[in-house]
Amino acid sequence: MRPEFHIRPFAPGDEAPIDRLLDDLWGHDPAMLAVSRIHKDWGPATGLLRTTLVAAHGGTVIGAGTLFESTLHPAHLLAGINVAGGWQRRGAGSQVYAELRRLSPARPWMARLSLRDQAGVRFAGQRGFRRLANTLSGTLSPDRPETRRWIEALPPPPDGCAIRGIDGAAGDPAPLELARLHAALYAQSHQWSPPAPKSDGQALRQFCGEAVLAGSQLAAYARGQLVGAANLIAHPHKPASADAYLVNVGVLDGAGPLAGQLCGALIRRSLEWAAARGLRVEVEADDSSALVRGWLELAPFSSVDRDFVIVAALPPEP
Questions:
Q1: Dihedral sign, CA of 173, 176, 182, 187?
Q2: pTM > 0.70
């Protein structure tokens, strides 16, 4: 019997049909749609591993899987597999997975899933993926009275601590000092897949670059020492929106017993800054960011998603 489909490498003409497939699967779920759109052929010039395979029925793309090397989290290869609704549970995803495994170096894989995707969660679980972290995301609308009340109830800086807005005035920390602190905070909250060390240039681009909303950068001090920071960035998944994105926020673990209150004060200042400019704020925090997550769990989100999970599997035995 002739196979229903065949597996082949990604070709340049596959990009549009894959985008349509993802729209059909996740058009109702913008967050999952953004996460799933990793099927792009970077080509060999990057020097990074990147493999995309396509499942095709005749000339129709019915599924795609991508495995790629992350410059942020080199301990894992990032993976994503999507199969058209009418073709699920017919072996296409399994064959794409098996072929990607055959082509993969002996490094663990990591994937981001939604618990709403019961088929995807089951597929990953059957192949030995385990949960690394859970991600909370949600939107805060400062024009809602309950949101304003919650922001006003967040704590001020504790005694001996201070938060200052960074505007280039004398005495402000240099951009590189802030960038290095942000990089340390990112590493602190991502130990489930330790990030690669960042060069000064990389840290400046990621944490103090053009995505940061001008005037939103904050620095937090405890007993005169720089121990925390926050900023708001343009929404990475909704570039046409006016929403701000709060993801770069935190206080160093070594800041002592006042760190929790100081972190809450940083969140408050960031949200007050956004509210004064009429901006909605989308936030994101993994459960590994305990200080940030603890405050945000209490927030009156106008929309919220608690279903994202980051999962990983070790490579199969040789």
A1: negative
A2: yes
Let me know whether 120 and 146 are in one domain.
no
Mark which of 128, 148, 176 sits at the end of a domain: 128
Residue 314 maps to a domain: no
Q: What range does the domain containing 35 cover? A: 6-128
Say yes or no to pLDDT of 1 above 70: no
Q: Residues 7-36: what's their mean pLDDT? A: 91
Same domain, 140 and 195: yes
On average, the pLDDT of the chain sits at: 91
What pLDDT, on the 0 to 100 scale, is given for residue 105? 84
Domain count for the chain, please give it.
2
d(Cα 211, Cα 36) in Å, to the nearest integer? 22
pLDDT of 107 > 90? The answer is no
**Residue 151 and residue 168 in one domain:** yes
Provide the token pair at 156: 């001020």
Query: Do 93 and 150 share a structural domain?
Result: no
Q: What would the pLDDT profile of 182-237 be if each residue is shown by its tens digit?
A: 999 999 999 999 999 999 999 999 999 999 999 999 999 999 999 999 999 998 77
If you write DSSP's letter for every residue of the chain in order, what string do you get? Answer: ---S-EEEE--GGGHHHHHHHHHHHHTT-HHHHHHH-------GGG-S-EEEEEEEETTEEEEEEEEEE-SS-TTSEEEEEEE-GGGTTTTHHHHHHHHHHHHS-S--EEEEEETT-HHHHHHHHHTT-EEEEEEEEEEE-TTSHHHHHHHHHSPPPPTTEEEEE-SS-TTPPPHHHHHHHHHHHHHHT-TTSPPPPPPHHHHHHHHHSTTBPTT--EEEEETTEEEEEEEEEE-SS-TTS--EEEEEEEE-GGG-TTHHHHHHHHHHHHHHHHHHTT--EEEEEETT-HHHHHHHTT---SEEEEEEEEEEEPPPP-
Using the structure block, give the residue that is written with the tokens 């121990």. Answer: 227
| Same-domain status, 296 and 162 | yes
